[in-house]
Amino acid sequence: MQAALAPDLEREIFRYVQSSPTVNGLRVQPELMDPNITVPACAGGAIEINVQPGARIWGRTTLQLRCAKAGWMVNVPFNIRVFGNYVVASQYLPAGQKLEPGDIRVIEGELSALPDDVLRTPRNAYERVLSRSLQMGSPVGLNDLKESSVIKTGDPVRLVLKGKDFEVSGEGVAQTAGMIGDMVRVRLADGQVLQGRVLRPSVVVVTLE
Predict the structure, then answer these.
(1) Which of 56, 130, 162, 166 has its CA 20 to 30 Å from the CA of residue 112?
(2) Boundary of a domain, candidates 65, 82, 99
(3) Which domain holds residue 138?
(4) Does one domain contain both 69 and 103?
(5) What residues in the chain have per-residue pLDDT under 50?
(6) How far from the centroid of its chain's Cα atoms is residue 166's Cα?
(7) Among 76, 75, 66, which Cα is nearest to 32's?
(8) What DSSP line would sit under 2-34, residue for residue?
(9) Is pTM, for the whole model, over 0.85?
(10) Per-residue pLDDT tens for 175-204?
C-alpha cells in the first residue's frame, strides 16, 4: 500500500480486505490509486471501512471511509491485488483434447489480473474436453472446457421419440459417442438406426416432424 495514509489506517484497511469473503484467505495487496488523497482526522472516534452493497473487494474497488464522530465520509479508490494458486496448461493443448494430469499444472500468481472463471484446482479440469486450444502457460478457465462424452459407442441408451402429439420411448445401442447436445446414432433391436440429440447421460431424443 502506498504511503499516503496513516499507518494505523493502513493496517485497518489491510485487515478489512483480508477478512472479506471475496478473497477467502488469499494473499492480498491493497494499492492506493491516488497517493495524494487526503483522509481527515477522526478525533475521538474510529474510522469505519465499508464497500458499496454488492461490490467485490477484488481489483479496482472503492472503499468508503467514514467517521461518524466528525460527520465525514471519503471514497478512496484502491486496486486490490489478490494472489493465489491457479491452473495453467503445461504444454500446448489443442481444442478437443481431453485433459489428463500431465496436461496442466498449478502455479501461483495474481488472480485479480486473470479472468473470473480461471480454475483454482486441477480436479475441476480432469475428464473434460477443451473447447479451444491453449498455449503452454495459458490459464485454464471454466469456459474453456466442456464435458467429455456422456454416451460412448456401444452404450445402452433410452431412445425417446417425440412428435407433435405423442412421445414414445424404447431401448437401443449407441453407434457413435457424444456429449450433451450432440447428435448421435442409435441402433434399435430391429436393426433400424436413428439419429437423435443427447439429452442427458443414457438418454437420446429423436424429434419427428
Answers:
(1) 130
(2) 82
(3) 83-147
(4) no
(5) none
(6) 40
(7) 76
(8) -TTS-HHHHHHHHHHHHT-TTTTT-EEEEEES-
(9) no
(10) 998 888 889 999 999 999 999 999 988 999
